[in-house]
Fold these 2 entries.
Entry 1:
Amino acid sequence: MTHSPVRFGVLGTGRITRRLIADLQSTPGASVSAIASRSGDRAKWSADSHGIAAAVEGYAELLARDDVDAVYIALPPSLHHEWTLAACQAGKHVLCEKPVALSAAQVSEMIAAANGADVRFLDATAWLHHERTDQFRQWLTTTGPQEDSAKAAAKKDELFDDESESDGEAIPFRLGPLRHLSASVSFPNPFLDGDHRLHASLGGGALLDLGWYSAGLIRFASGVLPKEVYAQAVMRGEIVARVSATMIFDDELTATLSCGFDTSTRKWFEIAGTDASIVCDDFTRPWAEKPARSWVHEASGKVHSFVPPSEVNVPAEPNSAPEGGVPVHRCLQERVMIGTLIRWICEGAPSGQPAPWNAFHEQALHTQTMLDALDESIRCKQPVSLG
């Protein structure tokens, strides 16, 4: 069945909108019909810059338009809750930037508002939609006591050339019961003066901004909330500049989290089981000019280098052409994310099956719940129970 394009309106004209507007305009089934700012001049400048037909002064005015089916909320986190509720009340679907809100209570209200209005809500955590993340999901099914194994496409890596199998060969392995998770995300001095991430009242600070990724990875791998967390922070004025935290779960699973605005660029994780561990050094977004890679280290010491199935037997340079072939277009996670939301909007939930958005809602709610507990631990300087 052919559906009319989903027409997006954009709330906000900040720097973060530039990339995703281009992705919205490039995703089949989506278009951008309007963009809003508190300033009419700013809205017009952004509309002209991005080739958007309508420049709107005021966010409520955009929500009232009949040429907008869905909104992309690219405002500071302190405004996400207010304008998600308003969008749901206006009958608009919502793609909301991360972090979703300032508290788990707000996230819960946002999800309830979307469900109550029968509109779709998705947080813009793009790495969850990458093809490589589907590999991680498959590998995480091998943590049970049964003698199961995962198979994935393997590609040689120069670091482990003596140990990697031939390109495309299926490698059976299993993680075994999970024992430790570790995630680190940081960027050195990444923001301009005036950026909302430098203001606590707007939802700034490393815990919300980068901790969303680190905590989200830990929740993604564990599938549950920890029973206790303990966090410490380095402050820069009013904002959290760096966080180091430990967590403990049921079944003796532990985790460590790191995030910061004053540390070299990191976006890596390790998911360690009894039989093997998964390592990825760019999970939030693949490094430019590099394949979307990851490694499995078996307990025996053997190491396998992996890329997603679409990147096996392709050249090292992104979007270059194999000899005698056509250019290879690797997974663009933001466009896959947008396509997922469009599919939910146009097709709804499969008959007789749970709504696919429920899992993403729970991931977002649990991630924010973990951040709330970490924030409380920083403030009270002691472990916090989530029981």
Entry 2:
Amino acid sequence: MGVQLPTAFVKRMEQLLGDEFEAFMTAYDHTPHAGIRVNTLKIPMEDFKERSPFELRPIPWCATGFYIPHGTKPGLHPYYHAGLYYVQEPSAMSPVELLNVAQDEAVLDLCAAPGGKSTQIAAKLQGSGVLVTNDISTDRTKALAKNVELYGVRNAVVLNESPDRIAAAFPHFFDKILIDAPCSGEGMFRKDEDMAKQWETHSVDKCVVMQRDIMRVAASMLSAGGRIVYSTCTFAPEENEGMIAEFLEAHPDFDVVPVPSEAGFAPGCPEWMSEEVAAAHPELRGTARLWPHLVEGEGHFIAVLQHQGGRVTGTEDHTESEDLNPFEDKNNRVLNIDAAYPRKKQFLSVKEALTPSGQGRHATDEPKRSGKGMDGKSGKGKSARGLGGNKSRSGKDNVKSAARSPQDVLESYHQFVKEQMEMSSTGYTVVYGDRIYQSPLASHRLDGLKVVRPGWFMGTDKNGRFVPSHPLAVALRPSEAVRSINLSSSDAEAIRYLKGETLSIPVERMTLRNEVQPKGYTLVCIDGYSAGWGKWQDGMLKNEYPTGWRWTSV
């Protein structure tokens, strides 16, 4: 056996699995399965299958997921840097598929880092609705934000908060909630031997405490008739069936939606908790277990919890006192994020700036949303003006930067969009210092929260000149930029660009729109899919690919 398993773990699994134990243990002699999931935000499925550089074999439970041969290195291809696919363990693709996300919905990924499931949700939303993606770990939100940006997500807000604080800010708000809970990681022992080594210190008991805290507030964030998918990558029944049994006891207005078994998913085992639990909650057999000896993937547990409609029980009702429409800003405002935190910090403190009347040039269309009492109105926001200091979460006065005002920053941004882009932005324009974002949420939703990204990062104002961001570039279609250049993935030129090198590009290779001059910011594409910016002048393409994103392999 290649993996050294904890003795106590082996003894427990032998007791639980009985006749299946031998087959279970044999699975640890096999190589873990590798997979990729196509990012349909950037490329249609059929197009990817036609141009895939890898041999593909469909993953039964994910229409956009594929097994790739062992030894394949999908991270070492230009398509990875263009965000055309996400490298993901096959079993990990299943929870989002069962979340049943529909366009225009509000979705929360509560324990999201490093972000694979968030990008999967975003692909299902297709730029509509809103995705709030969160992780309580400050370090892990760095990878989360980068993945959201790399895969061209335009409608996501990235938070670094506790479930309690999110619940206070978003009562009965989300149509769908994914809880990929922190767990003891037993299902990943074959794939990650370090998790097996840490199992005794990162114990089941410790994880149960964390999971219980999360599930305690989960229902309070869900709208009537919404759905929660709870998942772990562990086999421990205390973290799985036991946790769902506790939730159902506290929330009788939820049903367990049975998970289909066609893909080889095994039913839940409530009797592993106790005969009493099995008798009280036979519906727990409708949860699913993914076993490495039964499916081509690692170990997972999934429970689909559907609210029956009406008021969610066991939670405080905020609906009479608060406006729960995320897309309606009554005073027709543009957001201004107060520069309370030093620029080196990644948290943003959100504050709105009232829109001066009579300045209609900086309008942004508000997103539309159907159902759940949303009226789907489209509103107009205008330019922002600076405010004085405001109170931070600690109650201390914040001092705003004496640099350019939000009004001036917006001027440079809108001038760039007018001259350099062929796109219409939706949502709210957010100014944080010299940085500009497009947010899918109205201001009061983020007030007081630790915000890593309030929306799609558009760029930075530098002394009156707008500098477009890399996340803006990778989310664009070639038709949305007035200048673009296409590189071939089969040519070394594409890798040279991804390494940060300057390229010699004759003007004849450029695609120019609206009779624009060739000099200036140019969207660089690989086989027709955006990868980053360059600045073209006199036959040379100055590389604008950010250092921290560059191709580093030989």
